[in-house]
Specification:
- This protein is mostly beta strands.
- It folds into two domains: 86 residues, no CATH class; 107 residues, Sandwich (Immunoglobulin-like), CATH 2.60.40.
- 0% of the residues lie in helices and 49% in strands.
- It contains no helices and 17 strands.
- The strands form five sheets. It has a five-stranded antiparallel sheet with strand order 9-8-11-15-13, with no helix packed on it. The protein has a four-stranded antiparallel sheet with strand order 1-2-3-4, with no helix packed on it.
- The chain is elongated, with a radius of gyration of 24 Å.
- 32% of the residues are buried.
Length: 215
Amino acid sequence: MRSADDLAYSVALQPDGRIVVAGPSDEAGAWDFAVVRYNADGGLDASFSGDGKLTTAMGPAEDYANSVALQSDGKIVVAGYSYIGTDGDFAVARYEGGTPEITVLGNGYSIADGDTTPSATDWTDFGSVVQGGTAILRAFTVGNSGTATLTLGAVSVPVGYTLTEALSTNLAPGASDTFTVRLDTVTAGHESRGHLVHDQTTAMRIRSTSPSRAW
């Protein structure tokens, strides 16, 4: 961890196979909470704190991390004690340990991020509807396959479409929700044909905290 002593006192295994280790780390006589996360293959996980390693000064003197636990939303909780003067006090730190990952399905088929090819198979091609006809509705499922809570923004659709069912604001790991889009009719005597594509530059956008997806 640092140039002096590092001690590992507690280990936790994430559902995705990543390994979290906690203990105290010494730098020139100053002991701090230390957390390291490894990938399943044993290499440092650079998605955690940039290099897989993190130290935290809990107080003005020595801090010792003794135990680590994982929350269901992927956050890492570390407990130990911290000295203020000659008194040792209970200390707890919580870290954003997980990573959210968004998935989008249409008609049960995965829709890739940045897909610009409308398809009737995944419902991004709405087909056509004439004035006075029955509006076409398509329901899409958004899921979180990651290990941290996924925060979702509003779904934006272009003119000619209406969002009839919105998404939840947050999705826990493993959770999903649906939103529904309607292709509306247009001026009498005209046909409306809908292609719905979900990337940042075209028709539909889903903003989220997923780090590997633009949406």
